[in-house]
Write a structure and sequence with these properties.
CATH class: Alpha Beta
Strand order of the largest sheet: 1-2-3-6-7
Number of domains: 1
CATH topology: Peptide Deformylase
Radius of gyration: 17 Å
Number of helices: 3
CATH superfamily: Peptide deformylase
Helix content: 25-40%
Strand content: 25-35%
Shape: globular
Oligomer: single chain
CATH architecture: Alpha-Beta Complex
């Protein structure tokens, strides 16, 4: 038999949503890039595309590891999948921008959030290489949103207490009804 590449079948995994308490866990760093990490990254991309979304943190699949996938390609039929291992913000600009954010773990809910307009990030890729990169616009918003997930922070935490309580109540009630 020839030496073929081992290709794992990608799987769509369930994305956990509010009020699941695991969304508040602080994710652990990825120690090394293993086959399991590559498979997880593939599954994350598959799940993200299926949802559909533009970014996903491993904790959203109930895996508390510092791993993020993202695809900000705009054109129909085009993809630009990216994987960020142990991403961190090194510096943030003093100017802010406001984007309407949504989250696959808080379905059908969107709200404007103010974040630093530009950030410099450091992350490792699937080959174990460390990169530093400047992010602005949607990329800056998305990477900050996903890094927040790794720290147990949700975009609703940036909203007023009133709005946040309303969202939590709605999702807690929906979960109770679904459990019946």
């Amino acid at each position: 038999m020839g030496r073929g590449h081992y290709i794992a079948a990608m799987a769509i995994r369930e994305i956990i949503s509010l009020p699941d308490k695991r969304l508040r866990l602080v994710s652990k760093p990825v120690e090394q890039v293993t086959r399991e990490i590559r498979t997880l990254a593939d599954d994350m991309l598959e799940s993200m595309y299926d949802a559909p979304g533009i970014g996903l943190a491993a904790i959203q699949l109930a895996v508390p590891l510092r791993l993020v996938t993202m695809d900000l390609s705009k054109k129909e039929g085009e993809t630009n999948p990216r994987v960020f291992i142990n991403p961190e913000v090194l510096t943030s600009s003093e100017d802010f921008s406001v984007y309407e954010e949504g989250c696959l773990s808080i379905p059908e809910y969107y709200e404007e959030v103010e974040r630093p307009a530009k950030v410099r990030i450091r992350y490792m890729d699937l080959d174990g290489k460390v990169h530093e990169e400047d992010a602005e616009g949607l990329f800056a918003t998305c990477i900050q949103h996903e890094i927040d997930h790794l720290n147990g922070v949700l975009f609703i935490d940036y909203l007023s207490k009133l709005k946040r309580d309303r969202v939590m109540k709605k999702f807690t009630k929906a979960a109770r009804l679904a459990a019946k």
